[in-house]
Amino acid sequence: MAMIPNFFGNRRNSMFDPFSLDVWDPFKDFDFPSLSSFPQLSRENTAFVNTRVDWKETPEAHVFKADLPGLKKEEVKVEIEDDKVLQISGERNAEKEDKNDTWHRVERSSGKFSRRFRLPENVKMDNVKASMENGVLTVTVPKVEMKKPDIKSVEISG
User: Fold this and answer.
1) How far apart are CA 108 and CA 71, in angstroms?
2) Whole-prediction pTM
3) Under CATH, to which class is 47-94+110-146 assigned?
4) In terms of C-beta density within 10 A (0-12 exposed, 13-18 middle, 19 or more buried), how is residue 7 classed?
């Protein structure tokens, strides 16, 4: 009977019973480093790792849109480094905990975030504009007007 599974409980915990609930974990005795062992990967530093940013190029500009729900424009920074790199950063503070509150789930992230984008050569760095509406940051980086080359027809003799 040991080979027949019992679906209604009373499982035997035997390593010889293929239907036993005990699952052998070959790694249980190894001491793997935890996330806290890597401070650069701690929760505080990776709060907005998944901050979503769209980058589209139009004939007139490069447009970046970042989803930053719940943030005010004062909590977000848009910077340009060395006229080549656009950096969007900010911080969302954690809610203050009241000792009388019972938390059932905490899924919203808090902490710092930063996203960087190397800009192409065809941008006007002195005309960058940013706006924030309904939790969406829009950064518009205008493009330099590329002068179309003068094309002259050459008559072919012959």
Assistant:
1) 12
2) 0.60
3) mainly beta
4) exposed
